[in-house]
Specification:
By secondary structure, this protein is of the alpha/beta class. The protein folds into two domains: 5-96 and 177-259, HAD superfamily/HAD-like (Rossmann fold, 3-Layer(aba) Sandwich); 102-172, Hypothetical Protein Ta0175, Chain: A, domain 2. It is 31% helix and 17% strand. It contains six helices and twelve strands. It has helices at 38-49, 62-71, 102-119, 145-157, 178-189, 244-259; strands at 5-6, 21-24, 53-57, 76-79, 84-87, 94-95, 136-139, 161-164, 168-172, 198-202, 218-221, 238-239. The strands form two sheets. The protein has a nine-stranded mixed β-sheet with strand order 1-12-11-10-2-3-4-5-6, with helices on both faces. A three-stranded antiparallel β-sheet has the order 7-9-8, covered by helices on one side.
Length: 260
């Protein structure tokens, strides 16, 4: 399949007629200038009424995500780039990344961040880091592509994973990413859906694994994903014409039209 095709071209191929579940990133994909808009909330409600399930797959912290599942019209949310899953109506997360001792793990991440700061003194811990369990975050603002690659290399030397979004950089366990977490959730909570019935949606490098067609043949990037086009090994199959939350609403309306 050719990648990065306009979403409008999908109508002729009927590629989306079997979609039953939308797995979507949050920041820069559901949000518009950092906020949920009334239009976005209505789109989520409309999808739920049409029995099109929505699962959020975000890099945001466990503390943030635990509240989201109680207020949005979604089936659940994966936090910390595949670390934890909150099912709708449950306040207890399911660990997707095994961590035998959380206290020891947090200390190791603290030390790793300190090592990065020795070479990059300008790094600043993200404000939501205190609400995290499986990963450690610092602000991405002001970091160049070369610096991000150097940080990735340093994390690999410490046997840790690294990714970044339009908001944050993440230090994490090597095996932890959005695709691995989502595949686990789909197997355990949504076994009735085949991969062809799931569409993944994102906008930045920490969504890259969601664009891997080996696991998710149907994927969509909102238009701002094009800013990272040269940095993505895996690219979405389709791209909306609108950016951020407006792009997600474009996809939602497209799915609703097909399913009606």
């Amino acid at each position: 399949m050719y990648r990065l095709l306009p979403l409008s071209q999908a109508s002729s191929a009927h590629c989306f007629t079997n979609i039953r579940l939308v797995a979507t990133d949050m920041d820069g994909t559901l949000t518009t200038k950092g906020k949920f808009t009334p239009t976005l909330l209505q789109a989520l409600d409309n999808l739920a009424k049409a029995d099109l399930k929505v699962v959020i797959v975000t890099g945001r912290s466990s503390g943030w995500v635990s509240g989201l599942v109680n207020y949005l019209s979604i089936e659940g949310a994966i936090a910390e780039n595949g670390g934890l899953f909150y099912s709708a109506g449950s306040e207890t997360p399911v660990a997707l990344t095994p961590i035998p001792n959380v206290v020891t793990h947090r200390q190791q991440l603290t030390e790793a961040f300190g090592e990065l700061q020795t070479q990059f003194p300008k790094l600043r811990e993200s404000t939501d880091n205190r609400f995290r369990i499986t990963d450690w975050t610092f602000d991405v603002q002001g970091l160049s592509i070369d610096e991000l690659q150097a940080l990735r290399n340093l994390c690999q030397q410490m046997n840790l994973g690294f990714t970044y979004s339009n908001v944050q950089c993440h230090i994490k366990p090597l095996e932890q990413d959005k695709a691995i977490g989502l595949l686990k959730v789909l197997r355990e909570y949504f076994p009735q859906y085949a991969s062809e019935e799931v569409v993944t949606v994102g906008d930045s490098p920490n969504d890259e694994s969601l664009f891997d067609e080996r696991y998710f043949p149907m994927s969509v990037g909102v238009a701002n994903v094009l800013e990272y086009q040269n940095q993505l090994q895996y690219q979405p199959a389709y791209v909306t014409s609108s950016s951020e939350g407006e792009g997600f609403c474009e996809l939602a309306n497209f799915l609703l039209k097909i399913s009606s």
